[in-house]
Design brief:
Blueprint (H helix, E strand, L loop, with lengths): L18 H5 L2 H6 L13 H6 L11 E5 L10 H6 L12 H5 L9 E6 L5 E4 H5 L5 E8 L4 E11 H8 L7 E6 L20 E5 H4 L5 E6 L2 E2 L9 E3 L12 E7 L6 H5 L23 E4 L13 E3 L7 H4 L13
Length: 330
């Protein structure tokens, strides 16, 4: 299924990030403990063919969907890779970049199971091979009321769903992240979150053309702090739905109990659709701060801007929730 393009949404690739930010990252790489060389060290030859060396760009990436307004300048590579939430590496915004160095994203396998006709455990290369890589430039809205605009590289989740042939009894898709406390320092404490991190979507949400499994950003492979080697991106939902470093995908009949609902069901639920009319119990969701705007990497001095219903993707996804009560936060 093709996504309808809008002429005003196209962003030229040279507009995505300043050249000096994209190319001159030696200091950043050293600071995060990453080393030069192939991301595919230790992987199979097939995996190396899919994943280019660190700093190299993917080949044969199609231009995909983008829908950006006047305030939606893509966030710099530096900000996207140094300011984020990934509790497996710590609870601070800079912890993931500082602590992801020991994490080894390849070799990698993804287990697909549950109510589907073609289950299996696939190496990373075999998982990606049948699917076309696309660049999708999406807004990303964190539940904490900050936001970014990110040029992802990924594959259609709808195509992945179709490939594994869910059975008629499958109503949801459940995602599970890797558990490697030796490499992921945050997982050494069960007081942060219960591990593994779990998320889920209704099957029709997973089949919406906007949903992708991302394997890169800014044309190159994901770094550890951004969910390497594969993560979920659903741009009309709050960012905590974007489970990272996925190792298991299950087709299930019952609604999955996602991690943040397990932690605090009074504040977090299953759907987590961006809704400026419904506040989080502890802060407003009517507006947001765009990270990197206004001169601050953390966005602390950037002006607030209005949050859009479904993060600006109402036309594409509102039909999924016809008849539902959207007056509650989750």
């Amino acid at each position: 299924m093709l996504i309808r393009q809008k002429k005003t949404s196209e962003v030229a690739s040279h507009e995505i990030t300043p050249e000096h930010v994209y190319l001159n990252r030696r200091t950043f790489i050293q600071a995060t403990g990453l080393i030069a060389g192939s991301l595919a060290l230790g992987a199979t030859a097939g995996q190396a063919a899919v994943m280019p060396a660190k700093g190299a760009k993917f080949a044969d990436v199609k231009k995909g969907y983008s829908k950006l307004g006047e305030k939606d300048t893509p966030t710099t590579f530096e900000a996207v890779t140094t300011y984020n939430n990934y509790y497996e590496f710590g609870t601070g915004k800079d912890d993931p970049a500082q602590n992801a160095g020991p994490f080894k994203p390849l070799p990698w396998t993804v287990q697909v199971d549950g109510l589907c006709n073609k289950p299996g455990t696939l190496g990373f290369d075999d998982f990606l091979k049948p699917h076309a890589l696309e660049e999708r430039i999406y807004r990303m809205r964190c539940v904490e009321a900050w936001s970014m605009v990110i040029p992802w590289v990924g594959i259609s989740l709808a195509d992945v769903v179709k490939r594994f042939e869910p059975q008629g009894s499958a109503k949801y898709i459940r995602f599970e992240t890797v558990v490697r406390p030796a490499e992921m320092s945050g997982q050494r404490s069960s007081h942060i979150l219960p591990w593994p991190y779990v998320e889920g979507l209704r099957l029709d949400e997973a089949q919406n053309p906007l949903a992708i499994l991302a394997v890169g950003l800014y044309g190159q492979p994901l770094l550890g702090q951004n969910g390497a080697p594969i993560r979920l991106v659903v741009p009309w939902k709050y960012g905590f739905k974007g489970v990272k470093s996925i190792v298991r995908i299950s087709f299930v009949e019952e609604e999955p109990k996602n991690t943040w609902r397990t932690m605090n069901s009074d504040e977090y639920g299953f759907y987590a659709n961006v809704n400026p009319k419904v506040d989080h119990p502890r802060w407003t969701q009517a507006s947001e701060r765009r990270i990197g705007a206004g001169g601050g990497l953390g966005g602390l001095i950037s002006p607030r801007q209005a949050t859009l219903m479904f993060n600006g993707y109402q036309e594409e996804v509102a039909h999924l929730y016809d008849g539902m009560n959207l007056s509650r936060y989750y």
